[in-house]
């Protein structure tokens, strides 16, 4: 299984290198915003596109595992480029499947301790995965570090098959994931944290007061993301844009669609009014789990 992971990772890096070479040679028309600091380092946006796409590692040992490196953009893609992107995405899918199986096997061998697998097959496997061919900025900062960023390995490069008339980027900052839970679900999650802990005992007592059929919701705020609002001749489409969108075209040097950009960083605070039909309570009933009740 470890050799399978290394083989798939090498294939992923090779496919990314092929795509990088294709973009560097073709020099397609692209929109990829840069910061002032990035322009001073290298004003060529294609180099930064390649840097982003090939970045498979954490930037430092303290980086939050939930944080991914993102940048929106729009790039024209010739048939040759689309072929390279297809190879990258297929390699990502294959690597993701092997990594999933290995992590599951690793967790089983460590007694199910999914959050502490330093002595498992997964940790051993990661030691064999090298930075060769990874992004130049990450290599310069983190030579020798071996913390693989699975989310950045797994995410596919987005492609749209029709060129839009216009593309309006916007920050979406109020997203959240809602998972419905039962009272029994919450009880098990609290016990997993530790029944002996005082704050958990308080929440377990609170749980006992609820009817067994009470619906509950676990809320996870989502990181701000840029959305691309695309206008085509006969329809519209909106999609998240953590990576630049590649637009299929026969002429990669044709004019870009009309583009409206946003700042590189999300606005502070809430940008939209709270929904009046919100069915979830304002404050969590079980704060250790971010679990809320539904309004009656």
From TrEMBL:
Question: What InterPro entries does UniProt report for this protein, alphabetically?
Answer: Tus_dom1 (IPR036381), Tus_sf (IPR036384)
Q: Where is this region: Disordered?
A: 256-284
Q: Compositional bias of type Basic and acidic residues: which residue ranges?
A: 256-278
Transmembrane regions: none
Report the protein name in the record.
DNA replication terminus site-binding protein
Organism (species): Thalassolituus maritimus
